[in-house]
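Re: the 236-residue chain
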Amino acid sequence: MQRYSVIWQGCGANSHYAERFHVPGYEGYLPFFIWGKELEGLENKKDFELREEHLLKGILYGLYEFDRDPKPWHQKKDRETLLYLLDVLGNGFKFENPEKMILDVAYNVREKNGNYASRIILETGSNLVPQSSKIKSDLVCDLWVVVSEQKENSELLSEIITLIHKIDFSDIHVDAKQIVCYYGLCALVFLNDNFGISEYLPEFVYPNVEMRLLKENIKALLENPQGFTPMDLKIV
């Protein structure tokens, strides 16, 4: 996976960036998601070009930080500009709708930069398009990968359960439905929520999970909850 970084570039009212990215008169900071040769250029203090793709990914990633862990340069008034730019960029790249934009950008970032980065973008997307079950479904899968790679994960496991209860399963692919329901049960087991498990099985697992591998994993996990790690249960 390629390393990445998000930089907040200062943008003056009459600057090149204000003109290039269609925000004349804007004074603030724009987030750019960079990787590859652009990241190398930043690290080696060489000139590099910031493009529309960098800005689109940067806004979707940067809004997570903007909303949850704001820094001194994150001004509330700037959020409206960032959302305006999402519309401009979405139209420029000819995405069908905001949901498709978020799903496609997250997929591209996942392939290039890994699940942690795509998870952040999907977190933003879930807030921007709260009715989207597809975004929530992809987010559950990314969260499980993140959980499997770190020690402290109870907060993310709880988030998985919350998301699953908000998903309309008729709106996602049947395979995704099975994997999402499977991860939800695994999350409850690692949270030691026995009451939650007893309610979850008839509501989500029995009606939805049919893949042999998932059923075998569930059986083994319920018989020996201490014998597995989240990594062991990840579906590749």
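Residues 144 and 195 are 21 Å apart (CA to CA).
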